[in-house]
């Protein structure tokens, strides 16, 4: 007996919704029940996978512009927050990327060009 509830507002994708003068078009955070340490873990892992170091991640929790993270940082306190973030980073690590542009020549030897490889159609799966 799943009947639509008449008191709920219908879902409308923001890109198709008309702009109304009284709509401030601001995001509003709403508290929901959950595990704050799991939220911390997921947040830290996400930024660590983007290459953010410990201190940069900790600054997010000190910034009131990030209300959920700021509240979590206030709840834990600076020492416990640092310990929790360090523990997550110790488990997942921090993704590091270094981009090096290769010169056209290396020790006077021209570098080879990238060659696109393709399989003949008869070797394609399902053919």
- Give the end-to-end Cα distance, rounded to a whole number of Å: 48 Å
Shape verdict? extended
The largest sheet, given as strand count, sense and whether it forms a barrel, is: 2 strands, antiparallel
Q: Could you list the spans in which at least 5 consecutive residues all have pLDDT below 50?
A: none
What is the helix/strand order?
HHHHEE
Total helices: the number is 4
Percentage of residues in DSSP E strands: under 5%
Strand element count: 2
In brief, what are we looking at here?
The chain is mostly helical and 127 residues long. It contains 4 helices and 2 strands; from the N terminus they run H-H-H-H-E-E.
Summarize the structure in words:
The protein has 127 residues and is mainly alpha-helical. The protein contains four helices and two strands, in the order ααααββ. The longest helix is centred in the C-terminal third of the chain and has 15 residues. It has a domain of 57 residues.
């Amino acid at each position: 007996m799943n009947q639509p509830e008449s008191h709920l507002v219908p879902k409308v994708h923001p890109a198709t919704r008309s702009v109304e003068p009284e709509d401030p078009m601001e995001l509003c955070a709403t508290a929901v029940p959950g595990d704050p340490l799991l939220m911390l873990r997921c947040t830290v892992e996400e930024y660590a996978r983007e290459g953010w170091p410990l201190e940069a991640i900790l600054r997010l929790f000190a910034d009131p512009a990030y209300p959920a993270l700021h509240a979590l940082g206030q709840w834990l306190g600076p020492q416990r927050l640092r310990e929790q973030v360090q523990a997550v980073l110790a488990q997942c690590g921090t993704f590091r990327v270094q981009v090096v542009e290769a010169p056209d020549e290396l020790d006077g030897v021209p570098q080879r060009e990238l060659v696109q490889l393709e399989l003949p159609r008869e070797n394609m799966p399902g053919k």
